[in-house]
Amino acid sequence: MNMAGYAFRRFLGALPTLFIIITITFFMMHAAPGGPFDASRRLPPEVERNVKAAYDLDKPLWQQYALYLGKLAHGDLGPSFKNKDFTVTQLIVTGLPVSVRLGLSAMALALFFGSLTGIWAALRQNRWQDYSAMTIAMFGITIPTFVTAPILSLIIGIYGVHLFGQEFSLPVGGWGGGALRNMILPVTVLALPQIAVIARLMRGSMVEVLRANYIRTARAKGLSTHRIVLGHALRAAMLPLVSYLGPAVAALLTGSLVVEQIFGLPGIGRYFVQGALNRDYTLVMGVVICYAGLIILLNFVADILLALLDPRVRLS
Amino acid sequence: MIATGSTLNAEAILKGRSLWVDARRRLFRNRAALASIIALGTIALLALFAPLLSPYAYDEINYEIVSCAPGWWPSATACHAGGAHIFGTDAVGRDLFVRVLYGARVSLAVGLVATLVSLLIGVLYGATAGYLGGRIDGLMMRAVDVLYSLPFVFFVIILMVVFDRNFILLFVAIGAVEWLTMARIVRGQTLSIKQKEFIEAARAGGVGGFAIIRRHVIPNVVGPVVVYVTLTVPGVILTESFLSFLGLGVQEPLTSWGVLISEGANSMETAPWMLAFPAIFMAVTLFCFNFIGDGLRDALDPRDR
Amino acid sequence: MLLSIRDLNVHFSTPDGDIHAVRNVSLDIPEGSCLGVVGESGSGKSQLFLGAMGLLSANGRATGSVLYRGEEILGTRKVHALRGSKITMIFQDPLTSLTPHMTIGNQVMEALGRHMPREEARLRVREMLDYVRIPEAARRMAQYPHELSGGMRQRVMIAMATITGPDLVIADEPTTALDVTVQAQILEILRALKSEKHTAMALISHDMGVIAGNADRVAVMRHGEVVEEGAVDLIFFAPAHAYTRMLLDAMPRIDKGEPNHTATGAKLLAVKDLQVSFPVAQGPFRKPKQLRAVDGVNFELAEGETLGIVGESGSGKSTIARAVLQLLPANGGNVVWLGRDLSQETQAEIRKARKDFQIVFQDPLASLDPRQPVGVSIAEPLKALMPGLARDDIRARVRAMMDKVGLDPAWINRYPHELSGGQNQRVGIARAMIVEPRMVICDEAVSALDVSIQAQIVALIKHLQAQTGLSLIFISHDLSVVRQLAHRVMVLYLGRVVEMASSAALYRQPRHPYTRALLSAVPTPDPRAERAKKRVLLAGDPPSPLDRRAQLSFLKSRLGEDNPDAEQYRPQLLEVEPGHFVAEFD
User: Fold this and answer.
1) Which residues contact C546 (CB under 8 A, 6 or more apart)?
2) Which of A211, B183, B257, C266 gets the highest tally of CB atoms within 10 A of its CB?
3) For the structural domain made of C33-57+81-250, what CATH number should be given?
């Protein structure tokens, strides 16, 4: 079967998924007690009625749902209830690039260092290098981002300034228009737990693959260690890592909510928490759709990569 | 060989070593896992008997000793809390020791209850799908795939809002999200065990469908499930702490490690003990769970890893 | 001397202590000759050569001395240079021994090293694949291992091991995972390698027959030691060591033995036109094809009789067992048990009837629940099929049964992992026999066992049959084992019977070309006979069972439309002599 056909079929399969997620989120959000205009000062009943009518909130739920889907089909995510001057699309367009840049940089960092550490540990299985790498990785998994973030900011921001002076130290907050120096700390904080997870994953699968019979064949052929690892073991060892791409996005997302808050970054996560608390239906929906789309996309990429890496998947 | 029978004394029935006994022996031989079991047990006991261990109540406010260091804290700080405040006090003068232990109660309870919920749903769902197989299995697992694409944190946050931060429902909400992986593991195991020859042997021996599940499938699925349970608890504790950090967790005056850590992080420069103690407790707990989980996995599936 | 191994020891450190896998072994392999190394599982025969070549797993350690043309190579850098160029290896399972995500062309080319221009290397690989008789070599080079059959994969392994022009090829159970007709083809290639290229060979095998036909000298190993070493004729015709004699005696012979005379009891079982097919997925856009695993099989079984069912992988022999026992739904035909048509009965009625027919499986460990003591496993059919028995009664019966099959009743609480393979198979037999069935199907029941254990289990089965007057269906790929037990033998080819006759007639006068090839392919533990043997080799791969034309492999004259999916004529069974049925062939 050809690759394009496979890709197209997987893409079609993703559409219902997205639709179901939209539906679940919509009804859950509306099942929450209260509405977007409860929290603020009590509006006069007449005004409230008008406002509700303007946002279609007076209609029955299923009608609201149908209206929302209709607009969505045209790419309109609707106005934000709380940030009155902005549409949801505008908010996402400003916030998403920040979050995505953070996330992708962290992911790239984690993939690189994580796999490297994992392979390194696997090649030294059950020796002290392996044990120490895996213990450090355990730290990475168990210490939450919101502990590492302030500690790193303290060290870099306060002691760093003492040592190197203001200019050469890293800023401990703010976006700075996405300048590299502003990104280093948040990306590092975000990447640390993922480096740990990926290192453990990579080590486990590498150890497994190195035990395979075909590695013995490769050794019997007289190949060097690095040719065995790169040519014969790596591709198979990467399979679990590729499957982890989707869940990794979800994990990075959790982290980015915290990191954006701590470092005061204008990402999408902040909008979401505020939106959820304020019943800003459209904003919450918009963000969920965005991220669900992202996760689906990465799962999709993972599937394609799996098929490329493993010729057996392509056939069945 | 053929003559080995009958010669032996029929009364001397030898005791067999079951796989469980073997696994327990291996687990206790694993020093990291053993130490973790002891450490975790200690923390659990401390949390259980928290009210008896300190003269202070967890919500007892004392504005005279706000953010004071414990008596033994070395560096020069604004004040030292006297008496039995061995971990110092928090921003409103409550005893940190007793609050860390109360936090342990909440965090461990969230971890355990949410895991139990996920276990219940996951095992039922996964075992059903795996045992029925075919079209129904395909449909059920497709549903899991869909839910997997849901941005997990967002989902929990919405649930928190929907349930209006109800403490108990928090458990359920997290559990309701965590069951997906459990269902996948159980289904995979069930499917692979279903194909084993000993299931066919039982069928040939006239054993009915339900008895096969009870006697052969479930005991063989337990191993990987136990391992995953031990690894789910720390995950849930971390999730709870994230929610608390975002202000969506348990509410004052009740506390959890997440709440304490996020409070501590805010005053890290002036009162580092407020971060240090809850963070250490939580990290140790998570470490223990992970070591026990790894140890269990190695003990149940003893290959050279 | 090409390779001299002196006082080689191999140790493994495991969590349960040190394992001394190879003990003080000394062997010599002269230029151009073949050393056969024979031994049962756990004899250390594979670890010996892995140790010598520095290929042990991480927890293994080899000490002693290995000299290549007089030069020490054990644990030196020299061995790296020799490995894959002057000394090469062929492993047992060609599917797992080839890298799954690399084309076979690249894998063979890799063995050549990097110093050769790519075009020249490709040419060499193609010539090599031709040499090991891989058809359409040029196209095959771009394929992945899973796209090839087992026999073709093993040819790739051989190509990989020969392309560098080695002095010594170490072949570790090179044919064990393969069907007997494919085994014959692979052994033919290895023989050609030795005679045409004068490559020395170390042939490691558990099969005395394989060794007899190929080795110049033989070393017999047990528990990590060489118990006897000598020229092949001496080992086979004048064995000095008791263990060697035991191995030779235990080896089932296809060319010897008194025929088992046909028992004539009342008719127990009649299978009529049995058909079982499975859907096989053809990729996401195509309709699944129906694989006809069993395609119209008829046979009967009398009280006290043993019917042997013989066939290679994919012949449908295990499917027949499961369909007869109603463990699989049949698509057509009837299974008539004592006049009752089981295909018409309800699940509840079939469950009750199970008391009369039981099964013994191939893999003794896999067929026992690892979490139950063996006593519980044995008691299980008793509890299910004879409800109402008192606890003490069940216990007493289990213990009596254990005694009968040669197990110590004191082991009633032991777990399968605490017993050996042979003991576990006795547990499997006890479980089948405990409900006093009238028929037992043995599905490859001795195939996973070492020959010495195999002989004991065969003796046990015969003994039980003589005691109870039980009927047996004995399914095996191994014609020699079937010969020891069966009164009548049925030969299957791709889901259909090609020949069915009394054991005496079938082994003496096989009629069908497939039966002949099958019999000729079985190696006998007799070096002289092996040397003199005229081999009837089948050409190429066994055809795909999905290809409807495959059944006409021996009746090409009746081939209709040349299309894998078109319906074809089915060869009919003709009775050439009373009781001797042969399918039509050209």
Assistant:
1) C280, C289, C291, C564
2) B257
3) 3.40.50.300
